[in-house]
Description:
Mean pLDDT of chain A: 86
Strand order of the largest sheet of chain A: 5-4-3-8-9
Order of helices and strands of chain A: HEEHEEEHEEEHHE
CATH class of the domain at 51-138 in chain B: Alpha Beta
Shape of chain A: elongated
Number of helices of chain B: 4
CATH architecture of the domain at 51-138 in chain B: 2-Layer Sandwich
Strand order of the largest sheet of chain B: 6-5-4-7-8
Mean pLDDT of chain B: 83
Strand content of chain B: 15-25%
Oligomer: heterodimer
Structural class of chain B: alpha/beta
Largest interface: A-B, 46 and 52 residues
Largest sheet of chain A: 5 strands, mixed
Strand content of chain A: 15-25%
Radius of gyration of chain A: 29 Å
Largest sheet of chain B: 5 strands, mixed
Helix content of chain A: 25-40%
Amino acid sequence: MFERRIRREVPEINATSTADMAFMLLVFFLLATSMGVKKGIRQELPPAVADSARMAPLQVRERDLLIVRLDAEGGVFVNDEAVDASALKARVKHFVENPSDDSALPEKHVRRLPLLGRVRVTDTHVISLQYDRRTSYDAYFSVSTQLRRAYYELRDSASRRYFRCPLARATAEQQDVLRACYPQRISETMLP
Amino acid sequence: MGMFMRNRHGRRMPTLNTASLPDLIFTMLFFFMLVTNMREPSSRLRPDLPASDRLEKAGESSSLHYIYIGMGTDGVQLDEEMVPLSRLTGRLSALSREEPGIEIALAIDRRVEMEVVNRVKQALREAGISVVYYLGDDAEAAR
């Protein structure tokens, strides 16, 4: 005779404590994280002096150079001429754009860009931002904002011209092209 | 127990089925994991940040480290710890060796002089850190 098979019940896993466990994790994330997004002005730092000394010194022609100087009191000078903060943006935009192909302003080079084809770009211009050791961070930050706003407005109007939409709504590819159209070339130095 | 399980009329209260509770909590958990980012270190320096309308989101929170520069102190705060300026380069180099590709968020008081900012920038360059964010208050509405 066959032995009768013993019927065993499969034991159930008690899942009551899973909720407690998940609660613990939830509380941890509530405490360790925050909703707020930190925002700031992004800057790429050049390599340290020891590295850059090995590179050939950058030759910048006078027409390609705009010197923005900040003195200790927060006064702004463009090529040694005092300007107020609101006029700075217009000066920078005019310099980078060189609308009338002025021979005293940065030279335009023909570049082949995706989406746009052949475009004339002032991609050798340099804005030299110079500040004193006593300049306040606030003054530096506001000039820095003005410079970025100038580039933003140039790219924005180019976006409206070429792509018929504001820069904020342009695709990532279009934004890359617009960045190549108006490359941000700012060099910063502290005056001795 | 019986006192709570029966109501005044002597009928048994139905027990609440909690089988789906873990799922519910897990859903909340995933929601919080996705929408939040790691909290920045608390700062004793409380820098008064300048305002700007040209700010962008400061990097991925996992690779972001913070430097606070306040008024009236000789050192700066690197994440949770005060570091004298003279030792900042060493600390930053060690940090970037441990985690290559880190980005630094700089929370600097608006009254700080650029001499200090420049020394911190120099330390960052010597440590081989290439991306920084100057944190500011968003002034989008105040334009």
